[in-house]
């Protein structure tokens, strides 16, 4: 397998990878707020924020350019390592309304540790020519960010493509022409149910660079073990918020379960602090409790994987077991296994 563990030094302290960046909706006027967690989950001192949303929220932006710190605005500890993406997924229909330089400056202002470059996401509906234009434009914007960036944060170039060659060429071109600390594969959300294709794209990215590799938007409970197996260093997730909004209870190995359909129990099987202290009916009635539990479920998945590696378990056997209940993901995993065996 391509799984790897590293420690990355950032302006706000070291972060052990592979790691998850939970999405924080700071800046967005949204009811889907992320409850604070960095003081509760010791190995999750990470967060992903949307730079454009923060910049566009005028009152907040004035506070942040004044004497207010982003991390206290987010109710997060001062050591929280922040990945600030550009907010590119808001440009699915249009072209960006901010320049690459403005975004880098905003990311530096808020003290981002990882800076994601401005990108134009692809769509599975878009014609080939339109997607190619978007790929070229994202590449140009990444190189502009590379020229503008002079801080201590890690600059992560966004790469897009729906075939392995495009991903590989994209990374090689950016590596030759810019200065980046890592790469992030975007545009995978529209094709996420096509596990085999997604897996091939990620393997292509992993082969093209030794540097930090992030995958945007796929840090849900099913994808996580697959991303770890493929050697991804970090990923972000809204799955814990979205599942709670849809009243779904996440559980490693069991995926997503509508909480309304669980009957005849007082207590849920998860030992996380939320489930330990609350009854099923309390969690059912309180979205914040459900969101907290769902985040614990994602962290537990990550801890289990790390544990299996540390205990020197046969990881392919472990993953055979993990994917046994999900035929679609399992097929992608089996294909990936064959590909990786040829590589190593
Ligand atoms: Zn729980």
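-> sequence recovered:
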């Amino acid at each position: 397998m391509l799984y790897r563990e590293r420690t990355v030094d950032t302006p706000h302290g070291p972060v052990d990878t592979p790691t998850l960046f939970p999405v924080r909706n700071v800046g967005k006027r949204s009811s889907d707020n992320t409850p604070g967690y960095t003081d509760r989950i010791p190995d999750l001192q990470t967060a992903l924020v949307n730079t454009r949303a923060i910049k566009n929220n005028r009152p907040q932006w004035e506070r942040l350019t004044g004497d207010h710190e982003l991390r206290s605005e987010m109710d997060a500890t001062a050591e929280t390592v922040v990945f600030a993406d550009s907010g590119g997924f808001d440009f699915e229909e249009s072209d960006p309304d901010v320049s690459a330089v403005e975004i880098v400056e905003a990311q530096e202002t808020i003290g981002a540790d990882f800076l994601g470059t401005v990108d134009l996401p692809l769509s599975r509906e878009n014609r080939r020519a339109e997607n190619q234009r978007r790929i070229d434009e994202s590449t140009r914007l990444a190189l502009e960010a590379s020229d503008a960036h002079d801080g201590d944060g890690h600059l992560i170039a966004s790469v897009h493509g729906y075939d392995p060659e495009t991903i590989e060429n994209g990374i090689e071109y950016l590596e030759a022409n810019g200065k980046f600390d890592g790469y992030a594969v975007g545009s995978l959300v529209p094709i996420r149910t096509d596990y085999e294709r997604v897996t091939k794209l990620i393997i292509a990215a992993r082969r093209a660079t030794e540097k930090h590799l992030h995958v945007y938007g796929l840090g849900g409970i099913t994808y996580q073990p697959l991303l770890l197996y493929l050697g991804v260093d970090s990923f972000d997730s809204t799955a814990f918020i979205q599942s709670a909004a849809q009243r779904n209870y996440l559980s490693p190995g069991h995926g997503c379960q509508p909480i309304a359909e669980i009957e005849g129990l007082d207590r849920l099987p998860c030992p996380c602090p939320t489930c330990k202290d609350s009854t099923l009916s309390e969690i059912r009635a309180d979205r914040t409790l459900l969101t907290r539990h769902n985040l614990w479920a994602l962290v537990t998945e990550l801890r289990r994987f790390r544990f299996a590696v540390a205990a020197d378990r046969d990881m392919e056997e472990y993953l055979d077991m993990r994917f046994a209940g999900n035929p679609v993901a399992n097929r992608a995993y089996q294909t990936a296994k064959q590909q990786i065996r040829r590589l190593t």
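The pocket of zinc ion is lined by residues 270, 272, 274-275, 293, 296 (CB under 6 Å).
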